[in-house]
Amino acid sequence: MKTNKLTKIALLTPLIFFTSCTLFNLPATGEKSTLGEVTPYTPEIKNLPAPKEKIVVGVYKFRDQTGQYKASETGASWSTAIPQGTTPILLKALEDSRWFTPIERENIGNLLNERQIIRSTRKEYAGNDANEAALLPPLLFAGIILEGGVISYDTNVMTGGIGARYFGLGAGAQYRQDRITVYLRAVSTSSGEILKTVYTSKTILSTSINGNFFRFVDTERLLESDIGITQNEPVHLAVTEAIEKAVHSLIVEGVRDNLWANKLANPTDFDKIVANYRTEEKVNDQRIVGNKFPQSNRGKWAAFGNLEAFTIKGDYVDAKMNIGGKVGLKYFLSEYINAEINVSNVTIENKDIIRRNVFVSEVNLEYLMIPKVKLSPFVYAGAGTFFLPDKPRYKAQVGGGLEYLLNQNLALRLSSQYDFGFTDDWDGFVNGSQKDQGVRIGIGVNYYFGSKKANN
């Protein structure tokens, strides 16, 4: 009866998910055409203060300069990694900004041919006034030419994932981060001088979440169920956002450096925008690829507190896990290595047999693997003492986990630790040659203070 219930549940689960597609935002029917999505920078460039007079600009070619093809696991792919229509994207961004009057230059040959057809047609049917009728208004000429393009597409800048499986039931998540880079420069048509060059980048995120169930429900019957979803950020939108950011930067830096001084309707309109841009530049100067920092952003000292679940691996059965606490202090010998001292309280308990509250002190050396990144793994090892009622018991421990730096001073930590006893009497019972051991799982915070370490 139990097996039948389990079978029904496992078979119904995928059905429930697929009949409730909105849970995963899955498309159940075809969608009609819609207006294109906007990026976070679309309203920013649209809401810039309007100039007194627009700047006439020409864009001959703003294209993919990477020459890179899409990665393929099945063989060669002749599809490009970057959309080839980046010139129209730039022209749209220039138009949205209301700062520029873009003129047709990418297909200037088509425009000139059409104007020649107009002149020929008018002249043919104009009679005596043929020469006057054939005249057309002159073409606008650009005071500035915009050049540049998408100059790089870096794949797998960061990859990672997490997952777990227990008794045939598992779940996992993976991510991959790519990166595009855009350069945009303004060139004076009167002198050929490069007035301003700006550089922007945008990451492209791909994520995958999946779950599965795998179990033998009978000696010859295997039950298996899978479900998952993958989401890829559109490359087109990433390119659009990077180009819009470049146009925004070109305008703001031009105002800051007085390139557009005669175009401003009211110079004070840009004071706050320029101040915010300078703040963004200062933050960006301290950042390199992968959200890393040229210098470790952690202090030389750290105080920490953890909530820890502890269970003993001793001679009695039915060991229980109890919550305790740990506090301590760290001193960084270098940006990678710190020395730590801590005290904690743990409960040794086997159901209906023994229960002891014990104070523990430890000394550890910890290695922070990538201190220039906000999310860093760490490992540590050291020695400690269990202060039992009769006499102290000595031990060694190893552990590790992940630390995420929330801000300059505060970090969140997930950790696990294994305690190796040198004796077999933590629980008051000696049986065999196996020493008593313990397992801890903890969550806590680190508070960093003191002067910042120099870059090693």
From TrEMBL:
InterPro entries: Curli_assmbl/transp-comp_CsgG (IPR005534), OMP/PagP_B-barrel (IPR011250)
Pfam annotation, one family: CsgG
Keywords: Cell membrane, Lipoprotein, Membrane, Palmitate, Signal
Transmembrane segments: none
Superkingdom, natural source: Bacteria
PROSITE patterns in alphabetical order: PROKAR_LIPOPROTEIN
Cleavable signal peptide: 1-25
Name the UniProt record assigns to this protein: Curli production assembly protein CsgG
